[in-house]
Amino acid sequence: MTDDVSKQLIDVLDRRVERRNERRDFFKTAFGAAAVAGAGIGAMSMGSRASAADPTTPTDPDILNFALNLEYLEAQFYSVAVTGVGLSPSMLTGTGTQGAAVGGRKVVFTDPLVAAYAKEIAADEITHVTFLRTALGSSAVAQPAIDIGITPTGAFSSAARAAGLIASAPAGTAQTSVFDPYANDDAFLLGAFIFEDVGVTAYKGAAPLLTKTYIEAAAGILAVEAYHAALVRTALYARGVATPSLRTSADAISNARDSLDGATDLDQGISPTTINGGAASNIVPLDSNGIAFSRTTGQVLNIVYLNNASVTMGGFFPAGVNGNIKTSAAN
User: Fold this and answer.
1) What is the tens place of the pLDDT at every residue in 103-127?
2) 199-216 in b/e burial notation, b at 16+ Cβ within 10 A?
3) Any domain includes 320
4) Structural domain of residue 164, as residue ranges?
5) Which end of the chain, N or C, is less surrounded by CB atoms within 10 Å?
6) pTM of the complete model beyond 0.90
7) Which ranges does the record mark as transmembrane (predicted)?
């Protein structure tokens, strides 16, 4: 995305600029206070987060760079869907192997509400990338290779095929069916649904691993991601009144995610549920205590790699993510 296009996207929400500036100031203050002078966050002394007794404990930069990989994915998807153009090249540099975001196109939205939601989420995700890159400084990872295309063997089609949304080719023959999240409003929402719940559970799962310095900042991003997930789930639920297959498709995506991240049920679809004997919506995925689910970094990578085994690449990240956290869990 060019600087002009990026500015236009954020200016769509100009009434929120002042709040964003306040959040940016907080991030600069919070992260800057913890950095060693002149060395950036990569040279910070992490104390208990990377002690000699437990060198495998992820440091705060490890966790934040893991989050940055996910933010690259979301920002590219939403940016392309809204404007037809990806992130500016200046936002992609860093440590590790830089890759391109391949595929995707602008969605021709017909529902003004869905279009407005998409623009808001895109602006927020671009801001998250900027925040994390600024906070991490010279230790920020580069954007890895990202697949947001619509080829028969691409990540979106593979995820949809695993969920049963599109047909699988007979054994021994090439896949030909595709899932196109840019085709229309409904397809876009289903594509967004693949990511949004995962982002919420990823940030919640990372919270106990962060030092106190970073908890408030991470909680702020978690809250934003939760709002995004609620927007997508609400839109799918409401549109599912007229098109029940939308709810069924979202439920199938939820089940496919659960098949990747282990035996524990960490996901919920959006079909109506029953509360005190009466019908109720199912917008917020919660456990029995009314608490949002968490995923480990390995479980998050299971989903974005589209693989329930211990691997280091695949799915939406065909060459893997950058940083020290890059291996999915063995499920």
Assistant:
1) 999 999 999 999 999 999 999 999 9
2) bbbbbbbbeebbeeebee
3) no
4) 3-38+50-304
5) C
6) no
7) 26-46
